[in-house]
Amino acid sequence: MAFLPFYISRHKQLKIVIIGGGYAGIAASVTLLRYMPDVDITIVDPQSHHLKITHLHETFRYPLQDYLIPFSTLERRFGCRHICAALIPDEDTLRQWQYDKFLAIDDEILEFDYILITSGSAVAQMDKAENIFDLHDFMAAAGSSLLESRLDMSKNGGQFISVVGGGATGIQFLFEIAYFLRRQKAEIGLRLIHGADRVLNQFPAGFSTYAQTRMSDLNIDFYPDTYYHGQETDSILLEENETGRKFDLPSTLSLLFLGKKADTIFFTNAFGQVMVEHNPLQNIFAAGDCSVYQSFGSDTLTAQSAVRKGKLAARNILRHSGSFKLLEPYLHRDLGYVVSLGPADAVGWLALEDNVVGGMPALMIKELVEAQYDLLLTGIDTYLI
Questions:
Q1: I want to staple 162 with a disulfide (CB 3.0 to 4.6 A). Which of 63, 181, 254, 355 is the partner?
Q2: What pLDDT digit, counting tens, does each position of 99-130 carry?
């Protein structure tokens, strides 16, 4: 059993319920097992599998199954239990859980010492026609299959794909689609619609310059400062931001990447304990995209932050259960961020946000980060505190 500073066990087997089996929930599980191998963990998640959602754009090259890990596999690997259910508690429910030290799922009463909520954030959705896909569709089927089901790859010209959203997710899908079409030798036009004046506008300008240059190289049309208004048959309805001019373009297929939106946000103190009416619930923690920490640590909606929050919350659960109850504040700062630009290219920053790198150096950073999480899924924790 590894040593955890400021933690002296009371030699009690803890019962911990983790609501959500995404990045934060898995990171918390591995961390708990590292310091308390006999911990009793129950993961409550409505899906049958853990999804490595940051890899979905790669399903134009690889099967979707490569990024799905059945919870049954994780149950055997970690000795935990998975209950297939959805729980989104409100403040009254949280207070009741804190008081009762149990919760009900269907007809089962689940006792706990601690709850960790890692339910993530929902993918923004809109009403869709049959020729509109969003991230939910790519969670159910590989990108290559979805495109082949809606497009005639052998047809010469006349077909267009519109990608809406130039954030990290939209850009990664855009480039994978461009290279997929090249491999298929499909003469299908590709464009990007984005509401800001540059892509990846949440990052330093170097990201935009690099990505837009590569877009030009691949003959991807770019419509900046343009809003999406809907899809009608084989046309996409748009509006220019500055002039208000509304227009339409031919679009056989439109892909919407509108970002994340957390339906329920859990505000926590600096240690990850959920706050209700300005008071921390001592035995209920939160981590991941659904949480906002009152601390100096990063609250970005990224897998990196989710993993770090999950690990910190797990450490603090153990410390709180011990003799000292000396908890660790969340101070993690992002160490970098990489956006994939297809199979052999990427752009990102490392250590300092102004330190923008592209090409193979960025791609190598991405591969190392992904390998680190793959090791975590096997129970090997290589993350630094």
A1: 254
A2: 999 999 988 999 999 999 998 766 555 567 88
